[in-house]
Automatic annotation (TrEMBL):
This is AraC family transcriptional regulator. The lineage of its organism: Bacteria, Pseudomonadati, Bacteroidota, Cytophagia, Cytophagales. The keyword Membrane does not apply. InterPro entries: Homeodomain-like_sf, HTH_AraC, Tscrpt_reg_AraC-type_HTH. Residues 196-297 form the HTH araC/xylS-type domain. Keywords: DNA-binding, Transcription, Transcription regulation. One of its GO terms (molecular function) is sequence-specific DNA binding. The keyword Oxidoreductase does not apply. PANTHER family: ARAC-FAMILY TRANSCRIPTIONAL REGULATOR, TRANSCRIPTIONAL REGULATORY PROTEIN. Pfam families: HTH_18. SUPFAM superfamilies: Homeodomain-like.
């Protein structure tokens, strides 16, 4: 699995599975009709969504592996690596796949806003698990796209296909919101761990060595992708993860400012700021007073 192959076109994606290409920029595949494929890792230049059936072959995303036990949607964006792990030389894909080239949506509303669908940046372990009813909604969207692909391309084809893909992705936003709600108790535990992580961070020498804690650093320490972590914090607290971290920074700073044995510059460097003026600016934005004014008034 060390070898990585590029998936550069819809035609190549279809050819690997022995299926016909009906449109150069988009395809919907019933994977049960695909030929067995070799378990290589792939670097995608396409947007690919897999609807994986229960008990299919384990799939890797980046360097992580996930053994599917439920019907699951996995979202892959251009520039991401994915592949299949299997002991045999080939494996039989199952489920469904939707793949489209970025050129399909370029210049459209979806093209301008596709980065808003943050689940394209989720890790494999954060894939979307769907109910049977949700699965039917997904398949209806896929079937509408397939309907367009089965007919000659005309001036309406692109608009209808792109709008259906956007409808599908909007449904996935709803499904992910449901998944966040049903996992609320797990997410609250993560928030507790996040708070503990920040406390231990500022009680150590990490700020001087690593600087201020970033969203990416905290997500990594909690074994989450930055996108999923950000969504989780936002849904649970109403704040972005960055805002949450900054609030913590200010709480710590308020305590440290009272230590008159240290200059404000020393405190700034101790907390991980590269420049004292950045510390002063952030403090004043949040508190309404400069660190020096806060110290004198209190």
């Amino acid at each position: 699995m060390d070898k990585i192959k590029k998936v550069e076109s819809v035609a190549q994606f279809n050819a690997q599975r022995g299926q016909q290409t009906l449109h150069p920029l988009v395809t919907v595949l019933d994977q049960s009709k695909s030929s067995p494929i070799h378990p290589f890792r792939h670097l995608s230049e396409l947007y690919i969504i897999f609807l994986k059936d229960a008990h299919c072959s384990p799939l890797t995303y980046g360097r992580n592996q996930y053994d599917y036990q439920n019907e699951t949607l996995l979202f892959i964006a251009p520039g991401q690596v994915f592949g299949f792990e299997e002991g045999e030389e080939t494996l039989q894909p199952n489920g469904w796949a939707l793949a489209f080239h970025p050129d399909l949506i370029r210049g459209t509303g979806l093209g301008r806003h596709i980065k808003d669908y943050t689940f394209f940046g989720y890790d494999i372990s954060e894939a979307l698990h769907i109910s049977e009813r949700e699965r039917q909604v997904v398949l209806e969207c896929f079937q509408k796209i397939q309907y367009e692909l089965d007919h000659p391309i005309d001036k309406h084809s692109r608009t209808l296909i792109v709008s259906t893909i956007e409808l599908f992705l909007n449904y996935c936003v709803r499904f992910y919101d449901r998944q966040f709600i049903t996992r609320e108790h797990l997410h609250k535990d993560i928030l507790v761990r996040f708070e503990d992580l920040l406390d231990s961070y500022f009680d150590s020498d990490k700020p001087q060595n690593l600087g201020l804690p970033s969203v990416g650093y905290c997500a990594d320490q909690l074994n989450l992708s930055a996108n999923y972590f950000g969504e989780l914090v936002k849904k649970e607290t109403g704040k972005s993860a960055q805002d949450y971290i900054q609030t913590k920074v200010i709480e710590v700073a308020k305590e440290k400012v009272f230590d008159v044995s240290k200059s404000l510059s020393e405190i700034a460097y101790e907390m991980g700021f590269k420049y004292p003026q950045h510390f002063t600016r952030l403090f004043k934005q949040h508190v309404g007073q400069s660190p020096n004014e806060y110290r004198l008034l209190n």
